[in-house]
Structure formats: C-alpha cells, structure tokens
C-alpha cells in the first residue's frame, strides 16, 4: 500500500502527507461529461488492476433514457475493462474523508480501446497528429454562472446573492468589485484547485449576472480535457458550500450572454520543437491558414458536438458575445475563429464556437479534428474579417436537428473521430432531441393557446 502511494503525482502525495487514504473514486466520463464509476476502499484499489462497468453508460441520454445505440447485438450491456491512468490521480478535497479521484480508460475484453469513450476519442485524434510529426497544444477557457439555488425547473434561473446581499449584477465584465461579490466561492475554487494540483491562469468577471471565466495554462489536449472534466465538478462543489449552484448550461438566463468553452490551438513540430504556425522569420505559414480553413470548412458538421443540446443554440445570438458565423479575424471577438495577439512562438487559433455544456474531451477532439482535416486537405480560409462579423449572415446550424443532419452526413469528420463513436453519439443525441420536441413550452401556451 505504501509503495503504491509513492507513485502518485506530487500534488496527490502532498494532499495525503501525514494522513491515511480512505477511499478512491474510480471514474470515467460519459458522453455528456458526467463522472461515472465506483468508489472503493483504498486497500481494495491498491490490489486491483482494473474494474468493470457496463458499456451502456455511453448509450444514456442526458435524461437517463437510452437510444438504440447498442447496435445489431441489442442491449446486452457488455462489461468494459476500466484501467486507471495514475497520472490523473488527484484529491477530492470537498469530501468528508481523505479521498482520491482517478480517471480510467475503457477497453474491451480483447484489450482494444472502446471507440465511443470520449477520452479515447480525443486520444485517437491526438495520435493522428503525432503520426504526422505534430504535437497539438490547447488552452481552454471555461465560462460558467453562479446562480441562486433552483429546485423547481418551472421557475426561471436567478443570479445568486453576492457578498453585499444584492443579486449579482450584469454588464460588469472584468469588474474586480463584481469578482469580490463571489469571494468566498472563488476562495474555495482556488483552494480545491491547489489541492488537486491545477494551475489557474486567471479568473475574471464576464458580462452576465454572476458569470465568471477561468483560464487554464496551455498544454497537452488530453491533460487539459482531464482538468476541465475535474474542474466542472470542483466548481460545483465549491458553489454548493455557499448555498448556490454553478451551472455550465450554454444559455441559463434569457437576455444574458451564454457560456462558452473557447479553445486555443497551436501545433508543435515534434522534430524541431517549433510552432508550426510560424515560419523562420516569424511570419504566418501555410499550415496556419490551412488550420483555419479546416475549421471554416468542417466546423458546421462538428456543431452537434460543440453545441450538444437544444439549449446550446440559444447562445448563438447576434451581439451577445457569441459567434453567429465562421468568419475569422485577428484580435476580433465578433468572429467565430479568432487569432489572438501574440508573438510568433505563441501564435495560435481560437475556436469560439464551443459551448461550456459540451463534453471537454469531445469538444477539444472535434475542434482538433477540423483543424487536422484542414492541414491534410490543404484548405484555404475565406478572406479575413476586419470589421464586425455580426454584420455577416449566420452560416452555422441554428437548431439541433440541422446540426445532427450535418454531423451524420460528414464522411471526413466521421473518419477522423471514428465511425462507431459517431454512430453512437448521433443516436443518443437524436433521442434527446426527439424527447425535447415532446415538451410544450410556456411560450407556446401563452401565445398559441387562444390566438391560433
């Protein structure tokens, strides 16, 4: 037992120093990004090399129902073999005892990676880059709301009460006073992140009432997706300690900005260690333009992954800090694809279409997949947008059904992500969409009941 503990990452060892480990949470991300798994005594975890979960966890919709994703063999719930990735071992500092979390990878009985496990999908895309001699680097930004507790779905979501005793104010982007309103929650977020060994690059107030953004340092796509996966749980737990909810819905409050997971991308040439987007004299390379061209060409087919729920499409509203098209520009936040100001070494491309409600593994995977296709197909982008991209017409799907149609028709994207993953994902999301269409909204009752 003691020897096993000495192999843990440094932050996990520091968390347990002088303490007795009680429990290990063996977890894996399902399609929505919910942590599934088992909690086991530490002594048992030390003796086991793997554990089992049924593959049906990947067939479940967000409401807990199932589509017909099991395929021709029917719904027999085969056991998967889940093996721990000990590099992901980290504290669960909000628990009452001394607990670690460990992310696991899913395999079948023949030792093959389960193709519809989100972490495996991202690993597949990263390996395609590495096979070409490229190392993808990403930096995600996480936007979310702190809101008042909401236990009645029929009631609208309200901003949380701040430290002053007043509801969180909107239209206060980058205000330090607004950040101070949530001070106790933010303090716990920092404390939990430190205990888990995560480095926060910054926390800012965004434009919505109670909306915050956390930036993470750039790095390996799988590692950063793991961190976003962990952070969503961490932030929720910090909020609950202070009688509020943290929500990652794309559009939780009407007339307020939505929450995005902007993803910055760069690519390192493995042989030279140089940024593939910058040439010897510091100029922009063909690869830089091809990556943007890939995003412009293939992102419409990827929106069903970046915007995975009907609510997601409420975020794409003109003049509400979210893109409505695939224009690209330098230092232009009205575009869907932005090139931030940077030196040649840090030149990168930002995808601003992903919502914070997307699964971080899948959102990063599909964004990298579009850029990869642009690189190998040598695609060229449209002319740069130098003005207000909101003046251009929308050119991304506006509803879930349309997005799913494009996703299901995209042969190139499906080849990169894996056909079996795309089959399962499409069936699950189609089931969710059809279930939503059975719901009659308050708007319909108010305006149609007696007027049509």
UniProtKB/TrEMBL annotation:
Occurrences of domain GS catalytic (ranges): 118-452
GO biological process terms held by the UniProt record: glutamine biosynthetic process; polyamine catabolic process
Organism of origin: Antarcticimicrobium luteum
Keyword Transcription applies: no
Similarity comment: family membership: Belongs to the glutamine synthetase family.
Sorted UniProt keywords: Ligase, Magnesium
PANTHER family, alphabetized: GAMMA-GLUTAMYLPUTRESCINE SYNTHETASE, GS CATALYTIC DOMAIN-CONTAINING PROTEIN
Cofactor(s) needed by this chain: Mg(2+)
Residues in coiled coil: none
Keyword Ligase (UniProt): yes
Name of the protein in question: Glutamine synthetase
């Amino acid at each position: 037992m003691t020897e096993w503990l000495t192999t843990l990452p440094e932050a996990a060892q520091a968390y347990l120093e002088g303490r007795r480990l009680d429990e290990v949470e063996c977890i894996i991300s399902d399609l929505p990004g919910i942590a599934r798994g088992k909690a086991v005594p530490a002594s048992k975890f030390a003796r086991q090399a793997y554990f089992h979960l049924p593959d049906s966890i990947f067939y479940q919709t967000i409401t807990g129902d199932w589509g017909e994703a099991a395929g021709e063999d029917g719904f027999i719930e085969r056991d998967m073999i889940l093996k721990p990735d000990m590099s992901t071992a980290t504290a669960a500092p909000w628990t009452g005892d001394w607990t670690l979390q460990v992310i696991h990878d899913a395999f079948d009985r023949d030792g093959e990676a389960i193709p519809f496990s989100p972490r495996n999908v991202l690993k597949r895309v990263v390996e395609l880059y590495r096979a070409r001699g490229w190392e993808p680097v990403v930096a995600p930004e996480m936007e979310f709301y702190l809101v008042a507790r909401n236990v009645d779905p029929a009631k609208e979501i309200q901003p949380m009460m701040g430290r002053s005793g007043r509801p969180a104010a909107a239209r206060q982007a980058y205000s330090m006073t607004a950040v101070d309103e949530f001070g106790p929650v933010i303090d716990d977020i920092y404390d939990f992140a430190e205990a888990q060994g995560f480095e926060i690059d910054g926390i800012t107030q965004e434009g919505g009432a109670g909306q915050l953004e956390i930036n993470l340092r750039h790095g390996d796509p799988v590692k950063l997706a793991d961190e976003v996966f962990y952070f969503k749980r961490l932030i929720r737990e910090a909020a609950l300690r202070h009688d509020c909810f943290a929500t990652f819905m794309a559009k939780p409050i009407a007339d307020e900005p939505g929450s995005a997971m902007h993803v910055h991308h760069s690519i390192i040439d493995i042989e030279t260690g140089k940024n593939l987007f910058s040439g010897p004299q510091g100029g922009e390379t063909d690869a830089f333009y091809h990556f943007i061209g890939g995003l412009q060409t293939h992102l419409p087919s990827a929106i069903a992954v970046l915007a995975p729920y009907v609510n997601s499409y409420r975020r794409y509203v003109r003049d509400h800090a979210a893109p409505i098209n695939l224009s690209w520009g330098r230092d232009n936040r009205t575009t869907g694809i932005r090139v931030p100001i940077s030196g040649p070494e840090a030149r990168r491309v930002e995808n601003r279409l992903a919502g914070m409600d997307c699964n971080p593994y899948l959102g990063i995977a599909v964004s990298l997949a579009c850029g990869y296709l642009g690189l190998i197909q040598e695609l060229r982008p449209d002319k740069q947008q130098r003005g207000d991209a909101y003046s251009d017409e929308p050119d991304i799907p506006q509803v879930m059904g349309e997005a799913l149609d494009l996703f299901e028709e995209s042969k190139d994207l499906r080849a990169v992500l894996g056909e079996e993953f795309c089959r399962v994902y499409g069936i699950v999301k189609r089931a969710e969409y059809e279930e939503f269409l059975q719901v009659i909204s308050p708007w319909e009752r108010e305006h149609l009941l007696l007027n049509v």
